[in-house]
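Hi team, as promised in this morning's meeting, here are the two structures we talked about. I've kept the exact order from the run log so nobody has to guess. The first one is mostly here for context; it's the second one we should focus on when we meet again. Sequence first, then the predicted structure tokens.
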Amino acid sequence: MVDISSASPETRSGPIIQQREWSPWHLIWLALAAVTMFCVVFWAALGRPPLSGAKIIAVLGFTFVVLVNLSIGALATGAVIEHRQPNWSRFGAVDHVFMYVALAGLAATDAGSAWWLFSSDSGGQARWIFLLIALGAMAGGALWAWPALPLALARAAGDRKTAWALWPQHEPDARPAGTWRFFALLTVLLGAALGVVVAVAYLGISAWRESQDVPAGHPMPAAIAGIHGGYVALGDSYSAGEGLPPFAPGTAQTNCDRSESSAYPDLLITLLRRQDHRAPFSYTACSGALVRQILGPANRSGGVVPPQISGLIQPSVGLVTLTIGGNNALFSKVVLTCLTDGNCLHQTFPPPGVTEATARHVPPGDLLNRWGPATIEEIGNEEAALFRTLRHDFPNARIVVIGYPYLFPARPAPGFPFTPPMCASILNRLSAGERAGIRTLQDEFNDRSYEEAAVSGVEFVSPGAIWDGHEPCGADGQYTNSVKPYLNFPNPVNGGSFHPNGAGQQTLAALTACYLDANRQPPDPFVPGQPPAHTIPDRMVTPAQLHMVPAPGLSSVPGSGEIPFCRG
């Protein structure tokens, strides 16, 4: 082995002139590498060719792990060398400060990524793959930077000049023009790693800021008049309050994630109890619920979730609300596909591995023209049976189905300088045509729910007007989260992403309260003088074709101009 302590500023061949280990060229290489990797990651985040698509994201993720952990291994080894052999390199105080700050920043990023993966139960095998790659890259960086082993191997091969240790070093017998092998490569590696870290941090901080900087929710009326009896809140994650902890005891284990106080049903019961402080409240909404799971059990990893209603006739209930059908339509998988794959409207659905009931009943096909419309029809048939059952079980209740707000805004994606960056990333990853197509499918979905509700004697209210401009990345501030800074891996639309935030839940409560206040009796959904529909055709039809008036809330907030707090 080579004794690296033999390095000295003075050798038998004469004194070595002290030179800076860092030269201006090294700083230039570091800066160029950092800027290049920042631009690559940011360009990929924007979904711009040729860096668009799920495969590119996977490659960049692998690159991120390798670069960061190679750098951590090299810097950690270098710190040991600098401590044990202060004369080995010509680093000065400023160099050491930069080295330790960079090491701390990279280690914090690595630890944060590991926490992100391992704190979620949904990480699966991906987190262990991440760990193995990270440890392997860290060990490789440490080995590469440590000078003794490469020098010994090179000497055993008979040519010490081929040593390739990464850490800056000068040979014991070097003249002033001695070699500092691969030091330029170290600066490029460090710069690339820092560029990736800064880009990821930039996007993460943007996501955090966008999730925190939200407008106030729509104001609510002081009370809800005309409702007598108890209140039953059913539905899926939009009714459960996904992403708004703390969750009710036991609901996190089954992934029902039912918020204890922030979802719209909690706000509605507060209003109802101003009229009747003894009004009973049943809250059984569950994130991930399918249409059939309102009436039947759901098998979850944390146990069996019972049906959301008992199946008994309950004449004492005065109000029932629900949102349902989005999970049958695979809303989360549609969003994920559109964000990671190009031209999602013409992708074949359902994606591989999907087990939802409705998806199994519809043949695979083009999202926009085949699978999407066929799935909406299938969901409508399921909703028809559900709504008839609810009407039977709650004979005296106002049963209000709340539609889904748009998942994407209609406005153009922002241009240079792509601010705010996370919303610029989301809107630029989907063309205007793709976002328009998804909005069209949502219109057809809400129309079908409205039609089935009308023929079943159930009410429907649309969030179209009250949510206008408040979609994810909407121009007037988000009522629906785009991406939250903490994401359940590997699905970036869980954990509250693309679900109503606190302001959005208040707005859902305001929408329902304003609708009930403006309509003390269920309004007639059919055009006066026209025969009402009793069944919905199998083919896709619009409400107008069935002689129905536009859905309440579609064009204006219910009660606008009549109830002060309901004005849009």
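And here is the second protein, the one for discussion:
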Amino acid sequence: MHNSHNHNNNHQTNNQESLVILPPKRKYLPVGFEMKTWDDVKPFYEELNDRAIDSVEELETWLLDRNELENYIAENSAWRYISYTRNTEDTGIRDRFLFFINQIKPKITPFANLLDKKLIDCPYQKELKDEGYKIYLRTTRNEIELYREENIQLTVQAEEKAQEYAEIQAAMTIEYEGKELTMQQAAKFLKSADRNIRKAIYDKVIARRMQDSEKLDNLFSELVRLRHQMAVNAGFENYRDYKFKLLGRFDYTVEEVYHFHESVKNEIAPLAALILDQKRKKLGLDTIHPYDLDADPAGEEPLKPYEDSEELINKGITIFGKLNKALGHYLSIMHDKGYLDLDSRKGKAPGGYNYPLDEIGIPFIFMNASGKFRDMVTMMHEGGHAIHSFLARGLPLSVFKHTPSEVSELASMSMELLSMGKWDIFFENPKDLIRAQREQLESIVESLPWIATVDKFQNWIYTHPEHTIKERSEEWVKIFNEFHPDIVDWTGYEIARASGWHKQLHIFEVPFYYIEYGIAQLGALAVWKNYKKDPEKGLEMYLNALKLGYTRSVPEIYKEAGISFDFSLPYVREIAQFLKHELELLEKNVPEMV
């Protein structure tokens, strides 16, 4: 897939198993170039905008030069964000990150729009041969159509508000038995076999969250106001419709999103109710309370797959290598470069991510591991994103590598499932292995109704922008109850349920980016189903799909992976039946060992 003009052709060899990553050789930016302020990069944007393009070859060179500039800026910005999330309490790091958000990024946006127009207006763009250009040009036209100068400052304000959310969350801790615990560290106690411990921790967590509840409600109201104004500025009736287009959802409609909600409600929610009732019986409870939801049904202590992050990394590398030698090698490269920050600590932002670094082409994984089983799954998930970055890094332009979330999350969620047959690396005891695999599948069943809840809630929020805080809480509870079985007794915890959405960072930081997890989860289950039938072919189709990057439409990429891009009721029913069958096998103590 290499283009002869590729400025970032860093492979020393085509053999991926002995991949050596070298710093990119720049052809447009000077060697040793450094961006400190906007004035450092402005001349390059001006030159690109003023340059005459008189042939398709000159257009290709122009695109590669623009790509080199944008890769440098993207990576510079990435490191500012990574450093900030690793330590939100360091004001110097925070200021450096916010300087980019406030002083550099807003000045890039108008130039990016000018360059987009230059590309679309160039007569030679019709002669660009690479298949990926069709997708790139479609996206570019969409961005030109949505561009509004007055939205630049509103976007900056919204990003600053989103960072406030991250700081509020990062500062949340509780004290238990004389120790200060982050929310992530506290969560592992909710799996305890001792119900009194679970309740004590849950009560402390809720009490701590309630301290910031009003602050978060007001912060979110301000975000809704800013986002609605952006939509109005761009000529839309509401932010939902604007954001749908802004996210480049070319391959499905708002109506189909509602089909997804209905399919999950009818086919997955009943399975989730069944699992929850089985859990209640196994725990020997008449009634299940919110603090029982994460307890292990067998009443055993939580699974402990690893002791420290080094063990988590090394075992992760082993699993990836067993699936495919090159995949383990990719993670080893990241480890060698120090591009894995996995431990939870005070002041570290919540969540986890895989951040692609556009210039060097090696991603960075950030997590909040604290010894829980879910950390191991997160490692598989973020590792899936990482191998996607590696597999697509040979594509000539970064715009070809950056896939929409329906594809990027397919990469990560499939890896959670594809790795399951190798989890004996973490769980030598067969009983623990079966329990881990069962927990994984049950968590998928539980996650889909939550995803539908969050998405339907966001659809309501932004199509009712004048709502009050009280109305918002009431609507959340109504939608939550629609997708979640009436098995949990929320008596005494009504306020916790009404503000349960506060902990979902996507709602605050990346609005509407959530249903993609549900769409990709259905796809990942289909990838796994194929893999179980024919491991070699199933894995090959999955990897081939990832190598495409974003040079094809989403349905075409899914087709390459051997699956359907579909969330209709009959299709979701088929997936639900497959899931139920796999859970029944594990219930009979038949481990997944592909």
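Starting points for discussion:
Residues 26 and 32 are 9 Å apart (CA to CA).
The radius of gyration is 24 Å.
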